[in-house]
Amino acid sequence: MTRHELWRKITAFPIVASVLAQDLLAGGFRSVFRGQGIEADEVRRYEAGDDVRFIDWNVSARFGTPYVKMYREERELSVFIALDCSASMRCGSVMKRSEQAVLAAALLAFSSERSGQRLGAVFFDKGISRMFPADKGRPHTLAVITGALRECGIDAEPDVNYGNTPERKREKTKSGEKSSDLGAALIGLERMLKRRSIIFVISDFFCMNWEQELGGLCRKHDVVVIRITDPLDTVFYNAGFVVMEDPETGATIHAPTAFASFRAAWEHWHTERGAAWKAITRRAGASPFELSTNEDVAASFIRFFKSRRR
């Protein structure tokens, strides 16, 4: 799918975003919009009916009369998108995982704009490759989406088939070096965010050493992890003898897909991996969400946000 084809799909998202805007901050963040906030604003004398839990004992002892600490309600939150742009995201049977990920990021971006929240983004592969500070406005939203298209390697024109030319070989080598370090991206995001935010991590999670970093991020922020999957992850068709190559490491395997035992083992491995991923993310305190490349992004998000509201 080319850049122009993706933009045609993205242009319909502002309409869908009006439906998702109310549900975007539901669930874990509803409590933030009620009662006292988390930032101290001022101190005043204690009055009848004030909650004794907010008495500032240091100030009260200094002046010899009770004082209570007032807090500012935090009504404006930031929405951050952490998008995996590694080489493994550029694979898929129905469409590339990176294309589905960009569509998901675009819908989230328009929804945050519609709900009046500030939008920020971090794109990563081996490390953080590009960062957008939180801001508002349609130009900023379009800049984030354009940056996602560029970082994910979605060109304006269809891919050119170079065959086995040296240019094609150099392209493969460059792609193979673009691995994913999700843990480093999460650490960088945690250091950058000073205020409580809602974070959407979009990746295929074909990487290691990110579990502890995700737990640290969840302790302060509301985190939704979106795993981009593909139908071939669970059901592999009979394609005979196939040579598979890891786009990040260049390692190859010879797969006898004609054997039912191989297809069963393939399905079992991916099913167990998905179940382990879901258990790890829930234990860390995040909300897991799986999005396949053959699913409608808008319909899937509507179902997910409704479940969060319940």
Produce the secondary structure layout.
Blueprint: H1 3-10, H2 13-24, E1 39-45, H3 57-63, E2 67-72, E3 78-84, H4 97-114, E4 118-124, E5 128-135, H5 138-151, H6 166-176, H7 182-192, E6 197-203, H8 211-218, E7 222-229, E8 241-245, E9 252-256, H9 260-284, E10 287-292, H10 297-309
Describe this structure in words.
The protein has helices spanning 3-10, 13-24, 57-63, 97-114, 138-151, 166-176, 182-192, 211-218, 260-284, 297-309, and strands spanning 39-45, 67-72, 78-84, 118-124, 128-135, 197-203, 222-229, 241-245, 252-256, 287-292. The chain is α/β, with parallel strands linked by helices and 310 residues long. It has 2 domains: 3-30 and 75-309, Rossmann fold, CATH 3.40.50.410; 39-72, no CATH class. The strands form 3 sheets. A 6-stranded mixed sheet has the order 5-4-3-6-7-10, with helices on both faces. Strand 8 (241-245) and strand 9 form a beta hairpin. The longest helix has 25 residues, at 260-284. The protein is elongated. The chain starts with a helix and ends with a helix.
